[in-house]
User: Which sequence fits this backbone?
């Protein structure tokens, strides 16, 4: 199997890195460092062979919402909260509402944060077998109900995608024109797909939890570990670099005062 | 006295928020080490009965239970599902929601891991469980890449790995082709015979059961109405019909002979072998004449032209390897072949859901390359297997209206068409109802209706009878026959060879992405080698007809029974 180095990392390492990314993302308000973060992250996860095309397609479907976010923050950001004088600069005034440069920055940062979180989450879910995650939850003595929720949610994704394809085809065969252009009309065109998808998912979620219990999930407070997945040297090295990198970001932010709006 | 694996006393069950008793005063003992089959109409309470012994009902699916269930020596109301499940393995209906692992071995390990079975033992159990369902070598395969049949087998392996003493299977073969079914049944028989397990299966199909099961339990309207030896049951044809179970085709011939007084009831044959021996004995050296008249076809319009179509899902896997044939107006085509042979892939090309990688398809003269499913909707309608994937409106009327709106018809014209089709399908009374409040059979009709309002010249139906009980199969086939009689050209994908024999007028057999036989039903059922290559088993009546060496092949029990009785009566007349 062609597994990337990310696949081979221990689940603890991956969760740690995930935490680092969350911290890093909320460290900077300015879009520029966040853009750098996004590019660096993208470069690191490329070997995991994510379906980037699909991801961008999903994100571009959200473009109306993204534009709304940017616009909202442009007009509503509190100029007094900006640390840099330049951010208080007013770009233009719409009716009585001034659009500030800082607000624009803030909106772009929100967008980049969404992108980075989506990217990190996708990488994590795609490279981590459900079993690894469950055995991690097990090791930290999480209640097994939580594990059921996690496992159900994750294993659901491919099943749901299949279902979506089937429904999509069935609808198209009935003349559903999903290719209609235009925001609202496109949304309306999706309703036929969403109704059976939601009805089906509720039924499937129910069945999934039944069949997990049916196979003895929760019979004991733990379960047999199939592989000895202890953190290896490479995990410690990666974690160390993650820590150093995050610490470095703190220095950049608070010692050199970079990245504030 | 034999021990009972499952002992049910005075059992009644009502689902939460319902006041209909789905099971009523059920007393049932299932003998240890036997293979028992539960049969009955959809809604007779079979699945409920299957989910009770290990406590899924009422612990996870709530309701009110009266009476007691002792399974594997334990009162199922006193233990958790997880405790009961160790002894009583239940294979649920939908394999899709029973698979959690990323790979086949991960998934198979899921059960035993929960019971803290040591790692090395789990590895052995995976190996042996996969071997029993013939999935050896699949260990590292991604579960999401498996076919429907493979998933169904994996779901069984997942339960076998838990090593329960009782195995209950709820319609384990519903999505399988005849060969796949045969494999699952051999697995069940070997579990029961060699491993001394108690096997209980809920089933619709009759043929395997009559040969393999020890006991049969028939449910009807929440009651157990019959239990005992399957062969005794299948000879009582009036009961078989009454309880909505599919009769064995040869038994129908036998039933006619019994009613005319040629044989006693005990001699009604259930297998082709028995039928052959019986008919030879009755004919007493005389030859049976049967020469069917095939209606002349004449000059007909070409509706679909397929020329040298190849299709690849990805670079490595070629799903269709150079397919060429034509479909004419008035054809009633049965597209048959093993799971994964490419039937659905091919059919999805007809309305442009898939486009050929190379080659060309013309539908009513239009090249599908330049068309989309919605632009072909008036030429070709496609009914998918699962009606629930295509229903989304809040009423049946709106559901049917959806496709029509794209045609930009007047309100009047739309209403006229909707009522016309609703009348044809017998769903006129439910036009204002919410589709999901209807039963499965009616929902399927709604799905068909929403396609038919577009008045397509060609109708493609994907496995219209799968998962349906005998009433459902008959209703659906009657409907398709009517549509065909009214001039619609039919392309039907099916695994049910009895349906092929009694309804279609042309058969196309596919194997591994190619067509291996194409012709009239009689022609194709004569081609033993092609059928074997495609792993298609000849249905009982044509098989019997071939063995008897009839000149023309008899396809239905009526044809064969009619010819036989005519011959017997003639000789009885002559000997007087």
Assistant:
């Amino acid at each position: 199997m062609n597994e990337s180095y990310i696949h081979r990392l221990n689940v603890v390492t991956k969760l740690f890195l995930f935490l680092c990314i969350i911290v890093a993302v909320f460290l900077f308000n300015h879009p520029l460092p966040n853009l750098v973060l996004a590019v660096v992250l993208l470069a690191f996860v490329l070997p995991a062979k994510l379906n980037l095309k699909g991801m961008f397609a999903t994100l571009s479907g959200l473009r109306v919402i993204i534009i709304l976010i940017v616009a909202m923050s442009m007009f509503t950001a509190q100029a007094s909260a900006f640390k840099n004088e330049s951010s208080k600069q007013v770009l233009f005034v719409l009716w009585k509402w001034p659009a500030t440069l800082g607000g624009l920055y803030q909106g772009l940062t929100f967008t980049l944060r969404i992108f980075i979180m989506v990217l990190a989450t996708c990488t994590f879910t795609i490279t981590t077998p459900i079993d690894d995650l469950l055995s991690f939850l097990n090791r930290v003595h999480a209640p097994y109900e939580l594990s059921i929720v996690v496992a159900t949610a994750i294993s659901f994704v491919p099943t749901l995608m299949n279902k979506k394809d089937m429904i999509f085809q069935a609808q198209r065969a009935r003349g559903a024109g999903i290719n209609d252009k235009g925001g609202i009309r496109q949304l309306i065109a999706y309703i036929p797909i969403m109704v059976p998808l939601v009805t089906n998912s509720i039924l499937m979620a129910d069945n999934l939890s039944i069949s997990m219990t049916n196979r003895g999930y929760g019979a004991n407070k733990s379960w047999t570990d199939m592989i000895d997945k202890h953190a290896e040297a490479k995990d410690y090295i990666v974690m160390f670099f993650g820590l150093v990198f995050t610490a470095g970001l703190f220095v950049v932010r608070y010692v050199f005062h970079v990245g504030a709006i | 006295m034999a021990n009972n694996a499952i002992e049910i006393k005075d059992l009644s069950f009502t689902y939460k928020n319902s006041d209909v008793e789905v099971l009523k005063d059920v007393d049932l003992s299932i003998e240890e080490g036997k293979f028992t089959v539960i049969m009955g109409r959809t809604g007779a309470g079979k699945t409920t009965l299957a989910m009770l012994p290990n406590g899924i009902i009422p612990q996870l699916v709530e309701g009110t239970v009266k009476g007691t269930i002792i399974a594997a020596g334990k009162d199922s109301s006193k233990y958790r599902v997880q405790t009961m499940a160790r002894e009583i393995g239940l294979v649920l209906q939908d394999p899709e929601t029973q698979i959690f692992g990323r790979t086949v071995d991960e998934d198979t390990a899921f059960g035993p891991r929960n019971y803290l079975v040591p790692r090395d033992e789990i590895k052995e159990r995976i190996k042996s469980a996969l071997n029993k369902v013939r999935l050896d070598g699949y260990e590292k395969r991604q579960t999401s890449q498996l076919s429907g049949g493979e998933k169904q087998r994996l779901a069984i392996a997942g339960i076998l790995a838990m090593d329960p003493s009782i195995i209950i299977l709820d319609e384990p073969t519903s999505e399988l082709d005849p060969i796949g079914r045969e494999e699952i049944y051999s697995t069940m028989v070997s579990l029961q015979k060699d491993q001394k397990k108690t096997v209980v299966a809920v089933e619709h199909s009759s043929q395997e059961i009559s040969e393999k099961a020890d006991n049969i339990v028939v449910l009807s309207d929440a009651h157990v109405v019959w239990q005992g030896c399957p062969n005794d049951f299948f000879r009582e044809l009036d009961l078989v019909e009454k309880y909505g179970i599919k009769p064995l085709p040869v038994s129908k011939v036998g039933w006619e002979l019994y009613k005319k007084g040629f044989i006693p009831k005990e001699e009604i044959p259930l297998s082709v072998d028995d039928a052959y021996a019986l008919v030879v004995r009755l004919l007493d050296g005389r030859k049976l004449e049967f020469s069917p008249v095939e209606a002349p076809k004449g000059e007909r319009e070409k509706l679909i032209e397929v020329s040298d179509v190849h299709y690849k899902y990805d670079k490595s896997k070629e799903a269709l390897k150079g397919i060429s044939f034509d479909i004419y107006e008035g054809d009633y085509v049965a597209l048959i072949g093993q799971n994964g042979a490419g039937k659905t892939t091919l059919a999805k090309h007809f309305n442009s859901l898939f486009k050929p990688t190379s080659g060309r398809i013309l539908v009513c003269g239009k090249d599908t390359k330049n068309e989309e499913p919605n632009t072909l909707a008036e030429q070709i309608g496609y009914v998918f297997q699962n009606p629930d994937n295509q229903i989304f409106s809040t009423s049946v009327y709106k559901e049917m209206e959806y496709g029509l709106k794209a045609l930009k018809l007047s309100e009047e014209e739309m209403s006229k068409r909707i009522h016309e089709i609703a009348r044809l399908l017998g769903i006129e009374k439910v036009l204002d109802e919410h589709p999901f409040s209807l039963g499965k059979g009616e929902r399927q009709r709604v799905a068909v209706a929403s396609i038919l309002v577009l008045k397509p010249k060609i109708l493609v139906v994907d496995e219209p009878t799968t998962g349906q009980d005998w009433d459902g199969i008959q209703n659906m086939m009657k409907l398709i026959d009517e549509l065909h009689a009214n001039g619609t050209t039919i392309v039907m994908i099916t695994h049910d060879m009895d349906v092929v024999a009694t309804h279609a007028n042309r058969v196309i057999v596919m194997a591994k992405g190619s067509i291996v036989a194409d012709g009239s039903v009689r022609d194709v059922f004569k081609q033993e080698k092609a059928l074997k290559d495609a792993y298609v088993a000849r249905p009982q009546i044509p098989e019997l007809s071939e063995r008897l060496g009839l000149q023309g092949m008899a396809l239905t029990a009526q044809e064969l029974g009619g010819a036989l009785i005519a011959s017997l009566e003639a000789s009885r007349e002559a000997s007087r």
Observations:
- Residues 250-293+554-575 of chain B form one domain.
- The mean pLDDT of chain B is 90.
